[in-house]
Amino acid sequence: MANLGGKSYDFVAEDGGSILDKAQRDKLLSNCMAPQSMTLKKGAQVMLIKNIDESLVNGSIGKVVAFMDEKMYDIYHEDEDGFQAVETMDLNEEDMTESRKKLRAMISKDLAGTTSRMWPLVRFSIADGTTRDLLCVRELWKIELPNGEVQASRQQVPLILAWALSIHKAQGQTLERVKVDLGKIFEKGQAYVALSRATCQEGLQVIRFDPKKVMAHERVRSFYDSLYSVEEAAPKAKDPAVVGRKQVVAKDYEEDFLKAANDAEDDDDALAEMYG
C-alpha cells in the first residue's frame, strides 16, 4: 500500500446493536472479518469477504481500479468500454479525445452538485478467466440472539487487503490462486485449513512444507478409521464378530464430540491448553 501512488480513501465502519457498552460490543465484533477502519488506494489488492452471488463469493480476489459514487457507477455501467478505453489509453489520439469529451459531458450533466460518498470500484478475477467490476458499498454483519435481538452489528465495505493473510483469517475462503506458507504450522488441522482454500492443484503453491506438521486430532483419526466402503458393509453386517457390536456412525461421533466440547468449557485446564 505504501508504494502505491494516488489519493488514500478511509472507510470507517458504522457499529451498532442493543449492547451500548462500547468495550463489550467491540469484544463481540472482534472476530468480524470486516475491519473497524480501512484505508484503500487505487491499485490495492483486495479480497471480498461477503457472498454477493454465484461468481462473486467470500474469497474472490480483485484490484481497486477507481473510486466513485453510485450515480457515477451507473454512468460507468452504461459505457464501461468507454471508461476502460480511456483508463488504459487503448485508443488513438482522436478517439481518446472524443471519448473523454463524451464521458466528461455525461458526468457534468448527471453529477452536478452531488456530494455522495465515494466507494471503491473493484475488478475481480472470475473462475472462468474473465473479470467483473463491482462497486463495493457497505454491507451488514450482525450478531443476534435466537429471539432476533441484534446485540452488535457492523456496516462496512466488504473488503480486506489481500497481499497476505493468516491461515486463521483465511478459513472459509475460496481461492483460485493461493501461495501457502506452512513453515509456522503449530496446530492440528491447520495445514488442512490452509491447503483446502485452493480450488485446484494448478492454482496452489506450497512453500516450507514439512510432513511432520500435517497433524490430525486423534478423534478425527478414530472417526475415519471407523468408516468403511459400501462394498464392505454387507459382509460386515453378516459377520458374527460384528453382530451385536455397536458401530460408530457419524451421528454418534458428533454427539460425543459436542459432549466433550461442553465438558471442556467447564474445565479451566482444558481451556488453558486450548487457548494458552
Structure, described:
- With 276 residues, this protein is an alpha+beta fold.
- The protein folds into 3 domains: 9-69 and 117-161, no CATH class; 164-215, no CATH class; 227-276, no CATH class.
- 34% of the residues lie in helices and 21% in strands.
- The protein is built from 10 helices and 12 strands.
- The chain has helices at 22-28, 70-78, 80-88, 93-110, 167-170, 190-195, 218-225, 230-238, 250-265, 268-275, and strands at residues 9-12, 14-16, 37-40, 45-48, 61-68, 119-125, 131-135, 139-144, 150-156, 159-161, 178-181, 204-207.
- The strands form 4 sheets. The protein has a 5-stranded antiparallel sheet. A 3-stranded antiparallel sheet has the order 2-9-8, covered by helices on one side.
- Strand 8 and strand 9 (150-156) form a beta hairpin.
- Helix 3 (80-88) crosses helix 4.
- The longest helix has 18 residues, at 93-110.
- It starts with 8 loop residues before the first strand and ends with a helix.
- The relative contact order is 0.12.
- Residues 106-113 have low confidence and may be disordered.
What are the defining features of this structure?
276 residues; alpha+beta; five-stranded antiparallel β-sheet; three-stranded antiparallel β-sheet; 10 helices; 34% helix
Average of pLDDT:
78
> How would you sum up the global shape?
globular
Structural class: alpha+beta
The spatial strand order of the largest sheet comes to: 7-6-5-4-10
> Rounded to an integer, what's the Rg over CA atoms?
26 Å
- How many strand segments? 12
Question: What is the rounded distance between the termini?
Answer: 33 Å
Largest sheet: 5 strands, antiparallel
Query: How much β-strand is present in the residues?
Result: 15-25%
Low-pLDDT segments, ≥5 res: 106-113
In total, the number of domains comes to: 3
- How many helices does DSSP assign? 10
What letter string, H or E per element, gives the SSE order? EEHEEEHHHEEEEEHEHEHHHH
Helix content: 25-40%
